[in-house]
Specification:
This protein is mainly alpha-helical. Helices cover 79% and strands 0% of the residues. It has nine helices and no strands. The radius of gyration is 19 Å and the shape is elongated.
């Protein structure tokens, strides 16, 4: 029974994400979301008591999706050098951010709401902080292997996160004229060639 409820909830969040991406958070209504989810408005309220509750649940799902990506990168860490791990991990995130037009629009809505809503801002900061902590772990491993020098791995990790987000934004804003992957590859090489010891 719970699995049916969880599946219905997942479908609601998927429909709500599409609806908010298409119409914008302010314009999207509970009626719109219910229609896109193929259910009545009353049925929608059985799962969520407000549009804001749905939006916050979508943010939680975005954080969980990141965790799935991190697990994929964790598996790569068993075989790749620090340089190639950063390269491939960044590419995985960049592709996730740039290859789904709906996700791009949804992120725009999240950023816009974060400017107005402290709770949304807190969720967004949580997502960024988790990414920083995840990347910091690999920089610490690289330090132990003598592959990189860094005075502050947290600061370096934040720079990496903002670089990934910035390249994705550049791709979105230019209608994909800017290809982020070559720029990311050059950034990784410059980072390691500029501040790294020779890899062993």
């Amino acid at each position: 029974m719970n699995s049916d409820k969880d599946e219905k909830r997942r479908k609601i969040l998927e429909a709500a994400g599409k609806c908010i991406a298409e119409k914008g958070y302010s314009a999207a209504s509970m009626n719109d979301i219910a229609k896109m989810a193929g259910m009545t408005k009353g049925g929608l309220y059985w799962y969520f008591d407000s549009k804001r509750a749905i939006f916050m649940a979508i943010l939680d799902e975005m954080i969980m999706t990141n965790r799935d990506i991190w697990e994929e990168i964790d598996r790569l860490s068993e075989t790749l050098s620090p340089r190639e791990l950063l390269r491939q991990g960044g590419i995985i995130f960049i592709k996730k951010l740039t290859e789904d037009p709906m996700l791009h629009k949804l992120y725009n809505e999240v950023r816009a709401e974060a400017m107005k809503d402290p709770e949304v801002r807190k969720k967004l900061l949580e997502r960024i902080s988790m990414a920083v902590e995840f990347i910091k772990k690999y920089f610490r491993d690289a330090l132990e292997k003598g592959a990189v020098r860094a005075r502050n791995t947290k600061r370096l990790s934040l720079c990496v996160v903002t670089m990934i987000m910035g390249l994705a934004n550049a791709n979105w804003m230019t209608g994909s004229v800017i290809d982020p992957i070559p720029h990311w590859n050059e950034f990784v090489d410059d980072l390691f060639d500029g501040v790294a010891r020779a890899e062993r």
